Amino acid sequence: MSVENGVEDGNASLTISSMVKEIQGLKDKFKREDVDSPSPFADLEKATVLQECRVFSDSKVVTESPRKCSQLITKLLHIVTQGDTMSSSEVTDVFFGVTKLFQSHDASLRRMVYFFIKEVAETCNPDDIIIVTSSLTKDMNSNEDLFRANSIRVLAKMIDSTMLGAIERYVKQAIVDKNAMVSSSALVAGVSLHQVL
């Protein structure tokens, strides 16, 4: 019996040690691959990205090249999350440029727009937020459930007590919406608004 236990323990340790070696080998392999293929965001310069974002004003690019616009928003988000600060005029220019992306009906691009607005709204001038609020309110009345759900969540992160009255009716209607995504977004928005206000 003890011999069997020793064999079982020996097999178990062999299996565990071989797994550890295999995991270490994979870790080393991925580490080498990371060195061989640097991040596409490694050499981003804020000025260059801000210059590229001027294409947001071109409605043809917005409607025909949503992937390009999504990539530019990704670059902007990378710059913002890495701690590279933008001046108030740069934030305003980019913010207004991103609002022009509401012309596109591409779902992926629209998600990126919502995410960007939510991330940058805190650093924006409150006067700039009013313009975005009207676009988001329009999306709250859209026939597209994805747009309705996301716009409700973003608005809840952006508005203050003075703007609550303007969207309260929409949030109440969305809570009883037949689409689960819209109603859950409205519930989350309601909780978020209750905590802030």
UniProtKB/TrEMBL annotation:
This protein's GO CC annotations: COPI vesicle coat; endoplasmic reticulum; endoplasmic reticulum-Golgi intermediate compartment; Golgi membrane
Gene Ontology BP term (one): intra-Golgi vesicle-mediated transport
Domain Clathrin/coatomer adaptor adaptin-like N-terminal: 46-195
Short name of any one Pfam family annotated for the protein: Adaptin_N
Transmembrane segments: none
Cross-referenced InterPro entries: ARM-like (IPR011989), ARM-type_fold (IPR016024), Clathrin/coatomer_adapt-like_N (IPR002553), Coatomer_gsu (IPR017106)
Domain of life: Eukaryota
The protein's name: Clathrin/coatomer adaptor adaptin-like N-terminal domain-containing protein
Source species of the chain: Chrysophaeum taylorii
